[in-house]
């Protein structure tokens, strides 16, 4: 029944460029394309801002001396894009047809056509893939500190991953929780030193470096994290009530359904952000690259937007 | 119709849920669980989960932005 209702409401619209993903990369590309006076539609399944919108404070993006909340930065970028005539479809993209002159993007609510497509779907926090993780997701295991921190007031938690995300989100969680056990796979803390210094000022934090997570243990609720020290093989259970996981990123490319060549799941581009398919571009965290930050996403988006404009002018 | 949206600041799906209800002209009451610890405890009891948004429509809780279920409970489609 639902299928038929969707069919009736199906929209079909044409744009010069279709941008998939309203994170910093996609919004920057859209701004550049709109300034080239081409029509742009941006698809977004959650809210503008991308993964950065879940970050409570972004402090390494220039122009905001006191830092900026991720959601606020997304809102500002969206406003700038809308002021230039960029349109938005708050819909999840489920399939694409990228070959040929006219590209098609399908969402759950309709189908759209564009001369150029920008893939800016970013990445998400990676799952650890250990026993107990799926069982307790949303019931003691979380990938979003700003979303779930209030549930852990005065509780003991573990944060897996001591990169910039783990440390930054850890600082936010410390406003709520009783203590944090940080667990890091590498024998050192990969995060920026400025973040390490701030976290270490807290007395209720403990670091377990060079430890691999084996399992999230518990019957009805999370009771702890079983870890193994990587050099000695020694195992122990760290007793906690909840686990926040910030251990690397995973690209959001499932919707491509094998229609584009990927490397480790990421889209490969040249320095003009062109993919192997003419008229299809990619920018931001979804791209194979070395540093995934708002600043690099914006840089990618600018190059990408300029390349799309050049491509469209040649049509 | 009584709609309550439980949220936390900086939770993107909470913003998405609120925007969706506004687009559909549905008025709702918002409870920010970061300012209301007892609401957080109530939610865990009610849903068995530790996450927001939770949208309670006429007493029935929806965990996450589950659009088809929200539409059904609101009688939209």
Layout of secondary structure:
The complex is a heterodimer of chains A (315) and B (77).
Chain A: H1 2-9, E1 11-20, H2 24-35, E2 40-43, H3 70-83, E3 87-89, E4 93-97, E5 103-107, E6 110-119, E7 123-125, H4 133-136, E8 141-142, H5 145-148, E9 156-160, H6 164-173, E10 179-183, H7 193-200, E11 205-208, E12 211-217, E13 224-229, E14 235-239, E15 242-245, E16 249-251, E17 262-263, E18 266-267, E19 280-282, H8 294-313
Parallel strand pairs in A: 1-2, 1-6, 2-3, 6-19, 8-15, 9-10, 9-15, 10-11
Antiparallel strand pairs in A: 4-5, 5-6, 7-16, 12-13, 13-14, 17-18
Helix pairs in contact in A: 2-3, 2-8, 6-7
Chain B: E1 3-7, H1 12-23, E2 29-32, H2 37-47, E3 54-57, E4 60-63, H3 67-74
Parallel strand pairs in B: 1-2
Antiparallel strand pairs in B: 1-3, 3-4
Q: How would you describe this structure in keywords?
A:
heterodimer; A: 315 residues; alpha/beta; FAD/NAD(P)-binding domain; seven-stranded mixed sheet; five-stranded parallel sheet; 8 helices; elongated; disordered N terminus; B: 77 residues; alpha+beta; Glutaredoxin; 3 helices; 4 strands
Structure report:
Chain A has helices spanning 2-9, 24-35, 70-83, 133-136, 145-148, 164-173, 193-200, 294-313; strands spanning 11-20, 40-43, 87-89, 93-97, 103-107, 110-119, 123-125, 141-142, 156-160, 179-183, 205-208, 211-217, 224-229, 235-239, 242-245, 249-251, 262-263, 266-267, 280-282. Chain A has 315 residues and is α/β, with parallel strands linked by helices. Chain A folds into two domains: 2-124 and 249-313, FAD/NAD(P)-binding domain; 127-245, FAD/NAD(P)-binding domain. In chain A, the strands form five sheets. In chain A, strands 1, 2, 3, 4, 5, 6 and 19 form a seven-stranded mixed β-sheet that branches. Chain A has a five-stranded parallel β-sheet with strand order 8-15-9-10-11. Chain A starts with a helix and ends with a helix. Residues 1-8 of chain A have low confidence and may be disordered. Chain B is α+β, with helices and mostly antiparallel strands and 77 residues long. Chain B has a single domain, classed as Glutaredoxin (3-Layer(aba) Sandwich), CATH 3.40.30. A four-stranded mixed β-sheet of chain B has the order 2-1-3-4, with helices on both faces. In chain B, a hairpin with a 2-residue loop joins β3 and β4 (60-63). The longest helix of chain B has 12 residues, at 12-23.
């Amino acid at each position: 029944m639902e299928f038929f209702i969707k069919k009736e409401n199906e929209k079909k619209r044409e744009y010069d460029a279709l941008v998939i993903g309203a994170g910093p990369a996609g919004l920057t590309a859209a701004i550049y394309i709109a300034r080239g006076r081409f029509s742009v539609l941006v698809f977004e399944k959650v809210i503008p801002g991308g993964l950065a919108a879940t970050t409570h404070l972004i402090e390494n993006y220039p122009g905001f001396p006191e830092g900026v909340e991720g959601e606020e930065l997304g809102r500002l970028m969206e406003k700038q894009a809308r002021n230039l005539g960029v349109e938005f479809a708050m819909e999840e993209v489920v399939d694409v047809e990228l070959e040929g002159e006219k590209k098609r993007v399908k969402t759950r609510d309709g189908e759209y056509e564009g001369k150029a497509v920008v893939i800016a779907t970013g990445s998400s926090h990676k799952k650890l893939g250990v026993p107990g993780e799926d069982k307790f997701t949303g019931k003691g295991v979380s990938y979003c500190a700003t979303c779930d921190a209030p549930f852990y007031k005065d509780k003991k938690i573990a944060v897996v991953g001591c990169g910039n995300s783990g440390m930054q989100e850890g600082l936010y969680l410390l406003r709520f929780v009783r203590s944090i056990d940080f667990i890091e796979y590498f024998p050192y803390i990969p995060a920026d030193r400025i973040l390490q210094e701030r976290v270490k000022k807290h007395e209720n934090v403990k670091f377990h470096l060079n430890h691999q997570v084996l399992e999230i243990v518990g019957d009805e609720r999370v009771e702890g994290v079983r870890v193994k020290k990587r050099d000695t093989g020694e195992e122990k259970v760290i007793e906690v009530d909840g686990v926040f996981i910030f251990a690397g990123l995973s690209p959001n490319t499932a919707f491509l359904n094998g229609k584009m060549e990927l490397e480790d799941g990421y889209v490969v581009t040249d320095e003009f952000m062109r993919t192997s398919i003419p008229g299809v571009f990619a920018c931001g965290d979804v791209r194979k690259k070395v540093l995934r930050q708002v600043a690099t996403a914006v840089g990618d988006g600018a190059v990408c937007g300029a390349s799309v404009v050049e491509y469209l002018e040649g049509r | 119709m009584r709609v309550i949206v439980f949220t936390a600041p900086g939770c993107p799906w909470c913003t998405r849920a609120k925007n969706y209800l506004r687009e559909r002209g549905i008025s709702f009451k918002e409870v920010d669980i970061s300012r209301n610890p007892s609401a957080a405890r109530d939610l865990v009891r009610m849903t068995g989960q530790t996450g927001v948004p939770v949208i309670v429509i006429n007493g029935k809780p929806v965990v996450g932005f589950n659009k088809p279920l929200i539409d059904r409970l609101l009688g939209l489609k």
